[in-house]
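I wish you would study the pair of lines that follows with an eye to the fold:

===
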Amino acid sequence: MSQPDNFGFGEEAALLKASAGKFFADKFPTATLHALVAAEHRPERTGQCQWDAALWREMVELGWTMLAVPEAAGGVGMPAVAVAGLAEELGKAAFPCPLLGTINASYVLAACGAAGLPALQEIAEGYSASLAITDKRGSWVPGDCEVTCTDGRLNGTAWYVQDAGKADRLLVSAHCGGNVGLYWVPADAQGITVHPDAIVDLTRDQAHISFANVTATEVCADGQAALAEAMPAIWTVLAADIVGAAEWQLQTTVEYVGTRQQFDRPLGFFQAVKHPLVDVMLQIDQAKSLVYNAACAIDCEPARAPQYAHMAKASASDCAALASGRSVQLHGGIGFTWECFVHLYFKRQKHSQMLFGDAAWHRARLADIVIGPAAGAVA
């Protein structure tokens, strides 16, 4: 099946994106975000989990956590382009919540087939989730994990678990015999210890999680295959979040240089300010096109989804770096201060830029797809 001209972004997807934008604009302006996550300014502060749980419940009631859950499991089963539109608005608001983790877990569980339905039904009922699939090196290759499973019990540590303090359930990859399986476990199960990480991003929390003889439910014996199938959607959704955050950075900076006066003229009058902003706009347009191209491939051309998703995440990571640098630079003397809202998005973008692979990592895998693996290449 070829891709439609509009990436399959139909009326329902447009309505979802517009309603999400209005929801965040009305209920969670940037001043509210700053007051929520930036109250503690000391560099030596510990890892924190600051979020509005009541507003999160409203999002659950709106059905946003069910978008990637198939209808067979009680979800909405909307196309990936619609999910990408929601993620874009989430990134624009930088709302701290476990939505991305829940969507990611939904895609992995859906790739597990019928065995994933019970866990998907829990997500449809309102439970949030996060992936616990990464080893200490930070490898994003499916199967690179340190947790083991013996007789249905997990032992070991999962690293770089996103929004671990907000998730109700964990989807854990673990070595079992000669395979890597996927296991579904309550985040508060006996034997689980959450160790918060101190990260630069104030809008998320991250942790490494220790498992000590934790009873878990096996979802899929071939977890590597399920993760490999779901990863294009995970990369694409994160890239959409980056694009949304970059749009906020561009819009906010344009508004600032239009009002800030220098030499009796707005800063935006000068070409040294105009040209970098145009560069950011072009980078956003490129990344956004690649995001929706990848999302449409997930819906219509699954064989091409890995290639297009690598392109989307690579471009989005570049976009995160450029938009962040220019937004701080063009805010001048206040750009790096704690009171300026810009630093919240700068830090979120820097985290997203590296999460699930930076631009160089994705381009290396893209090269493997397009021209074949290089001799002696290191994974």
About this structure: The first strand starts at residue 129 and ends at 132. The beta strands are 129-132, 148-150, 153-162, 169-176, 179-186, 192-197, 206-215, 217-220, 261-262, 265-266. The chain has a mean pLDDT of 93. The longest helix spans residues 223-259.
